[in-house]
Inverse folding.
């Protein structure tokens, strides 16, 4: 296995410009033929939580009570302690 890596390293060093050119070519072809991430996300966009979930309803109620715009962007922070809290 080490010999294969050594051979690959020597080839890559000897033909460095060809290797870089090949990577640029692969990146260009992939950019043309692979769908863009933004389009895929927009086409398959779904909410993280259902609109009728208890947490979603609570966010909507609190937004209404505080005269804020309702949103489905909810962030959760999970803390894990290595020892029991004091």
């Amino acid at each position: 296995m080490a010999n294969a890596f050594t051979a690959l390293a020597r080839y890559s060093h000897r033909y460095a410009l060809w290797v870089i050119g090949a990577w640029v070519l692969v990146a260009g072809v992939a950019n043309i033929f692979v769908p863009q991430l933004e389009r895929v996300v927009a086409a398959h966009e779904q909410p993280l939580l259902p609109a009728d979930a208890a947490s979603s309803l609570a966010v909507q109620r609190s937004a209404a009570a505080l005269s804020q715009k309702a949103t489905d962007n909810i962030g959760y922070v999970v803390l894990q302690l290595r020892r029991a809290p004091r």
Observations:
- The chain has a mean pLDDT of 85.
- The longest helix spans residues 16-33.
